[in-house]
Methionine--tRNA ligase (Thermodesulfovibrio yellowstonii), 630 residues
Amino acid sequence: MNQNKGFYITTPIYYVNDIPHIGHAYTTVAADILARYMRLKGRKVFFLTGTDEHGQKVEKAALQRGKNPKEHADIMVKNFKTLWKALNISNDAFIRTTDETHKKVVQEILQRLYDKGEIVKRKYSGMYCTPCERFWTEKDLIEGKCPDCGRDVEFIEEENYFFLMSKYQNALIEHIEKNPFYILPESRRNEVLGFLKNKPLGDLCISRPRHRLEWGIILPFDENYTTYVWFDALVNYYSALKYLAPQDTEWWPPDHHLIGKDILTTHAVYWSTMLMALGLPLPRNIFAHGWWTVEGKKMSKSLGNVVNPWEVIKKYGVDAFRYFLFREVSFGLDGDFSEEALVRRINNDLANDLGNLLNRFLAMNEKYMKEKIKIHLEETEFSKEIINLIQEIDSETLWNEFKFNIILEKIWQAISSTNNYIAKTEPWKVAKESPERLSLILFNIWNAIRIITVLIYPFMPETAEKIWKALGLTGYSIDYRMLNWETEIKEALTEKIEQLFPRIELKKEEQTKANTKEEVKLEELISIEDFMKIKLKVGKVLQAERVKGSKKLIKLIVDIGEERQIVAGIGEQYSPEELIGRSIVVLSNLKPAKLMGVESQGMLLAATGEDGKISILTIDREVNPGAGIK
Ligand code: MSP
C-alpha cells in the first residue's frame, strides 16, 4: 500500500429540501466515530460531508418558499452545519454541489465520458416518477404506481443522454465477488449480487431536458439539458479531493462510503460503473446502514414523529445521544428509537457503570492518596484481563466493519471488570492495612479508566475529555500510545468533577390542574367576532440568532406561508440552535414593532410557568407552515 495514502471517509451529501433529522445524524456520527478512531491511531484522515443541492426536490421546496433554489439552499445548509457542530462532528470539509469547482469537475467528467463514447443520445420513453426523479419500465410498476414511493407516474417520451452502464454488469459482479469487503453488511452485498445476476442492467439516463428541470448542471455538450441529480451528486466524492482536501496526501480511492440502505443501488451500481468507465479505482468499501423507526413506526412527516436531534441533545446531552445510537442496535440493522430506551441506556450504562466507576475512584483517591497517583508497573491478574480486552477492542476488523455495538459491549466489559476489581479488592479495608498495596490498587483502577477513556473517545469525545482532566492528564493528548497498559506518565494528580451523567427520572405526564375554575367577570368576556380578529398561524422556524447585546431577545425567521422576522424574549430558556426546525404558533396580524432596534413582524405564543420560565407553544404533529389555528 502507498505509504502516503490517507484514510478517506464520506457520508452521503444531504438534500437541502428539509431540515436534518436522526437519520442524517446517524450516518454522520458513524463516520465521525471512525474518523476519530483513525486519527487516534495516527492516520491522516479526510472526512467529507456536505449537501446535495440540485434537482427537482430542491427546486420544488424552494419554489414553495418563494425563494430561488440557491437562496433556499444557502439558508438550509446552515441547519446542517450548526447541527454538525453541536454533535461534535469533526468533518475536514463540507462540500456543496453548487460549489463552482464541483460543477466544473462534473462537466469535465461528463465530457470525458461523452468523448469516450460512454454517453450517447437516445430516444426514450418510459413511466416517470417526478418526486423520485426516476424513469420506470411498465414491468417495474406496482399497480401502475411508482415501486419506490407508491405515487402516480406519467408517461414521458423524449430524447435524453444515457450512460452505457449495462456493459459493466459482468465486471461489476466480478468485482463484488472478488472483494467480500466491497459491500457491507453481507446481507446487502447478497442483495446487490442477486439483483445484478438476475436482471439485465439497463443504461442510465443522466440528463433532463431543461424545460423540465432548470436547476442543475448544464451538460457541457448540449446546453438544452441539465445533469441528472444523482450523477452530479455522486461525483462529489471525487470532486472534493480537487479543492477541499490537503493536496500533500493521496486520498483516492475512498476507504468507506457510508450510506443508508435506501441509497445502496445508486452507490453500488451507478457509482461503481461510473468509476469503471472513467478508469478510476473503486472505493474499498460501501457500507449501508439500517433505518431508524420511532416507537415501532416508520418515521414520517405525516405521522409527525420525526426525531429532531436538537431536541434530543438539548434534553439528554450530545454524548448520550451519540452513545445510544451505536450501542442500542448493530450498525447495519434497523433500529427503533424511543426516549424510554435512551433513558434506560443513560441510567444503566452511563450513570451507573461509567459515571459511578469514575466517581468512586476519584473519591477514594482523594481520601486515601490526597489525589496523587503513583505509577506501579507490576503485572496483576487484573492488568492482564484489561490488556486482553484492549487487544480485542483495538481490532482493525471490528472498526473497519463498523461493529460499533460489539466494540461498546467490550468497552463496557472493561468497565465492569474495573468495578468488580474495586468490589473484590475493597480498597477501604486495605487502607488500614497496607498503604503500598492500596497505592497499587488505586493505580490499577486509574490506569484502567485511562485506557477506557481513550477507547470511548471516538464515541463520546466530550465525556472523554472530561474524564481525562479528572484523571490529571490534561498535559497529554488522547492517542494510540495511551492504549498501552505500560505508560510513560510519571505521576498525576486527580481532580473531582461533577457527575458525568446524572440519573434521569422519566416523569409521568404532569397532572393537569383540573377543576381550577377561574372566575371571569362577564364584562371581561369577548365575543367570537373579537376572537376572529386574531390570526394565529403555524410557523416553521427557518433561522434563529441572538439579538446583539441582549440576553433575552432572539431574532427568528419563520415560515408562515411567507417569511416573517419575529423577535421574541425567549433567549434565557432557548438557544437559537434548538429553535430551528420547530413548528410554533405565531400571531400573524400584529402591528410590526421594533425591539432593541430590530423589527418584529408578529409574535410567537408562549406560556410562563410559576417559576417564571418560558415555554413556547409548539405543534405536536407536522402541519404545513401557514396553516391557520382556531
Ligand atoms: N442526496 C442523497 C444522497 C446523495 S449521496 C451522493 C440523499 N439524501 S437524503 O438527505 O435524502 O438522505 C441521506 C441519508 O439519510 C441516507 O443515507 C438515508 O439512508 C438516511 N436516512 C433517511 N432517513 C433515515 C432513517 N429513518 N433512519 C436512518 N437513516 C435514514 O439520499
Residues 12-15, 23-24, 26-27, 52, 233-234, 236, 259-260, 262-263, 291-292, 299 surround 5'-O-[(L-methionyl)-sulphamoyl]adenosine (CB under 6 Å).
